[in-house]
Amino acid sequence: MGNLLPVSFGAGITALIMGLMNGVTVFCWDPRVDGVSGIDDWLIENSITTAHCAPSFLRAWSSLESDEAPDNSLGSLRVVVTYGEAVHGEDYARHRSHGFARATYVNWLATTETGVVAYNAFPPHSELPVGVVPAGRARDGKDVQIVDVNGVPLPDGEIGEIQIVSSDLADGYHGDPDRTAARFTRLGDGVSIYRTGDRGRIDERGELQLRGRVDDAVKIRGYLVEPMEVEAHIRRIPGVADVFVAVVLENDRPEIVAYVVLTKAVMARSGAEMRRELATYLPAWMLPRHFVLMPALPRNERGKVDRTALPSVEVRSTPPTLAGPAELWLSSIWESILGIDSIDRDDDFFELGGDSLASTEVVAKIHDMFRIRITAAEFAAASTVKDLAALVDRCRIDPDDRVCHNTMVPLKLEGSGRPLFIMNGAGCPSTTLSTLSKALHTDRPVYALQPHGFESRGLPDRSVKASARRFIFEIKKIQPTGPYLLAGYSYGGYVALEMASQLSESGDTVEHVTVLDTRISTETAARLAGRAGISLDPSIVDLAPQPSTNTRWKPTRRTVAAMWIRTLFAGILQYPPATQWTVFLYIGGQALRKHRMRTCAAPVTVIRGATNNRGREIWSLIATGSLDFDDVDACHEDVVRQPYVRKTAAIIDRICDRA
């Protein structure tokens, strides 16, 4: 038997004692110390047949990378029992597909005060429920009742507080008679009633369904909302690994906050994307106003979400204000795209959960409504309702009265320090870096540089060196002399390093270069090693992650020819956003294939994503000065997106503080 619960937790000590009293060997795994890494090998080594764990541990276990997951031969595990918090059918299904198709899954409802109240078992190959798994039927000796606020029993199907009637209950709370009186009622003959403080109902099958805590249910716009129900719907969104829903008061009215953990294997969804998906099947009053994306939910030693450790959200204490018709119309556009209401003139689009894709929708709707065209770069520089409305008003009065952000895009103008210049990826709009700029706390202006011709007419640079020359010309308009602070995301990392080399050759000083998850290809690594006259371990050379392929898309002569023609006219013709991004990504790829990297004497910090395995042996062939590494456990795109961008920004802040 495997006890995967802390023994200080009631369920953990119960599982331990029950196992020993039944004569079985109990192997203990402390999730607080050991996490989940190596759990599968531990199960096999000890021939574990029954595993007892919290649902949160089960989710983490199921999220092990594929190379850590076992095949379907782990037949020793026959039963998986979960306790402590709500478990979802999707949790069991995901774990079953992890290699445990022959296991029976059991959901136990138990409390310290009552012991086991009910359980629900799902044998191998049985259909699993959608959403929260019912607690099941009450075990012998326990009578489950659903009562109203006055303690009057409710008919099956109605929601109320769950109370347990039994002779097998605790006597009360030691040294706390007031709390005992509030929860326990003596009926005589050793029988007591315990009021759990949980809400639930008895369904048509006679099974108990939990609906959250009594104190958690709240009225929003006149409708009673149960956070657990909102959680269940959010868990249905592909890519969501874990979620906790809370309620905060904003402008004297309750609003829903969703703390979401997303899987690391795919690009994280923005809050706006999740809110729009939920809006297809949930009413407006059940939609979270705030989405807080997190790498993991904080949990206490019992495995439950530690509410006190959850990050606070900025809430407005005064009613939202808008000034003028442009702000009014723009707020309506944002509301339709972001799925929230009561937008204020000082609200920032990206802080409300918007991303670069959603920003293109805003730009398109502005064109439809006002018959003017603004670029994503202009939007990145004016991302509040107030600033965007001012831009729209200027363009409507005089289309030429605007600052053209073809290559250099100001993301943050405030600050007294030397500017930070960030070179963007080849096929990325400047809005890709907006979230990063807002997460930075450094006291200096921040500028993004994007490929020439990306958002207005202009011939694109077809080589990394040409891009570097152009970007140097642009940054000298802002900062004529060094020392310079440079950074580059993805393809932009190559450009930033080339800029450092060119600046050094011209006598300028580069303070630091930060490389954001730039990938060194196998060919480039081998070329660098050959130039240095050294041989690399083949296993090191082959570590470069290969680009993912879309098996549903098969290139044809026609599609290849179409892309070739589009790249010829790139910058002269402006394509729809998705096509434009793809075309410039292709141009960047062509530039990299013919680029020959040079050494960089400036200090370099390499920030690597989860699958970027290039280490010092290869990067030291490029960075001949000081070289540091920092890792962000996220996929390539998420290094500059929430929630992982907070760590990326903290690393850059630390670098800037030293400059």
From TrEMBL:
- Coiled-coil residues are none
The keyword Transferase is annotated on this UniProt entry: no
- Tell me the keywords, alphabetical order: Phosphopantetheine, Phosphoprotein
Q: Which GO terms describe its molecular function?
A: phosphopantetheine binding
Where in the numbering of this chain does the Carrier domain appear? 321-396
Q: Which cofactor does it need?
A: pantetheine 4'-phosphate
The record's annotation in InterPro entries points to: AB_hydrolase_fold (IPR029058), ACP-like_sf (IPR036736), AMP-bd_C (IPR025110), AMP-bd_C_sf (IPR045851), AMP-dep_synth/lig_dom (IPR000873), ANL_N_sf (IPR042099), PKS_PP-bd (IPR020806), PP-bd_ACP (IPR009081)
Name by which UniProt lists this protein: Peptide synthetase
The major lineage groups are: Bacteria, Bacillati, Actinomycetota, Actinomycetes, Mycobacteriales
